[in-house]
Amino acid sequence: MINHQSESDQGKTKSISDHSLVKSHTQSIKDIDLSVYRWAILLLYYLVVLVNGVPYEICVPISSFTAHIYNVTLALVATASTVFMVMHPILSFVAAQTISNYGWASATNLGVILTIAGCAIKLLINQAGFLVLLIGQVLCGIGRPFILNSQASMAMSWFHPKTRIMIITLLNVVNTLSLVISAQLPGIIFKGYNLYDDPDYEDGRSRMQSLCLLEFYISLAIVPSLLMLRSRPKEVPVKINKIERKGGMLKIMLRLFKNRNFVLLFIPFSLYFGILKAYLVIMELLMAPYNYKTDQVAGVVSFPLIGGLIAQGAFPYFVNKYQIQKPFVRLFLLSSTLAMGSLYFALQSNNVIYIYIVITLLAMCVMPILPVIMDMGCDLISPIEPSFAVGAFYMGSMLFFVAFTYILTFITGKNKEDTRVLYTNIFSTIVLIIGLLCSLFLRIDNQYYALDVEQDKSSLVHPLEKNESILKDNCPFIYRGTQSKMSIQHQKGSMFSCSHYNISIVGDVPLIPGEEAEDLLDSEQQQ
């Protein structure tokens, strides 16, 4: 009888490993026809992200003009961009909780309303003063986490689980593009403007009004999203699991950062992205001791964005195709660390081409790993709503960006000393080495394995974490990031230190209102 049971279990195991589908309840992903409407959803969402980023640098290229026209300090003008970005880390988890409770479409539409309202309020700048522009920037900034944190939930609601990394990759490209557009618009409107030719600042006020009006017209392009965005189609790619709905935001945050692997991803993401953005801000200070021209400084700031956009759009595709997430992250972290270490020598060489190559290589190594790490993080925190992972990553990168900007500015100083630039570069390289070392301790399975599974409600285990007791020759493989709560029966041992006969895997599915997962235990008890 025991032999018969063993043969039966082995047969189940073989059937599991031989199938190429992942089932949620009794319905497979392959059996669901993905809605064609998903492409309209994707385009609308990308448009919302693009428009929301446009107000960011409304005053940066024209800060000196703005300070004179409205009789305010340069520090107050700089605050217009700062408050826009600071809102994201402050409200990141609030936005994630909103997405979890009300759905990603409702949260995104809230961000749309705040963006349009912020752009509309700024139209009163000439009547009410510069303070109105700050209020408008705050509103646009508040809407940002509600929009950006929805990306993983949107992807998993409308697309096959394997496509999430590509959607996040394209979103990062769109997000970066919006910041490029944001930096260009003020220069276009104020092209040819001269303070000395405008003693009463009438022309300057008129141009600022035109800039705000242009932003408002651009914001109206996302009005259709208020009517057309939907949190889910009639048939979602995977059944929705609401196991985390009862957990409060503080409890979820604590669980998030108790996940060892997630923390080991959070640290390099925040350090590398934060220090890259800080370097682009202080690049003028770093190049000042070597007497580079203004156009050369502008080129050094622009080239990394262009190179990063290209790399960000290309590399994650191959990572997703060949399932090499962990080696890819480690290799590119190492490459960016080496590029950072050589940046001082490039600056000291007075060779602009050398600087362009090094700083572009740095951006091309940092930016492509961001969507890959986000995708891995969404899997790691299951069954917590993936918007919490996205929010945590953005929050960490923004906080470190602000911190590094002040720290690196202090180290570099304003006296144009070569030695201070060297200290800045050494500090930055050490910071990146710390992030690289964290990635070496990751214990994550890179590969996607196929399973045919059925729903169960047992212990919660992170599907990406590996255990020393894994015996791949005797145990069925695990499908990484299946996005559904699964269990498999196997007699010969526990892969995740669970019960002897039952192994549970819980995926990170979006928590969408209106559709509760079936409680199989309750249904069995009723029978």
From TrEMBL:
Q: Which Gene3D superfamilies match?
A: MFS general substrate transporter like domains
Pfam families for this protein: MFS_1
Kindly state which keywords UniProt assigns to this record, in alphabetical order.
Membrane, Transmembrane, Transmembrane helix
Q: Does the keyword DNA damage apply?
A: no
Compartments, record wording: Membrane
Annotated membrane topology is: Multi-pass membrane protein
One GO CC annotation, please?
membrane
The record lists the membrane-crossing segments as 36-56, 68-90, 102-124, 130-147, 167-188, 208-229, 262-282, 297-319, 331-347, 353-374, 386-409, 421-442
* Protein name per the record: Major facilitator superfamily (MFS) profile domain-containing protein
Q: Which organism is it from?
A: Paramecium tetraurelia
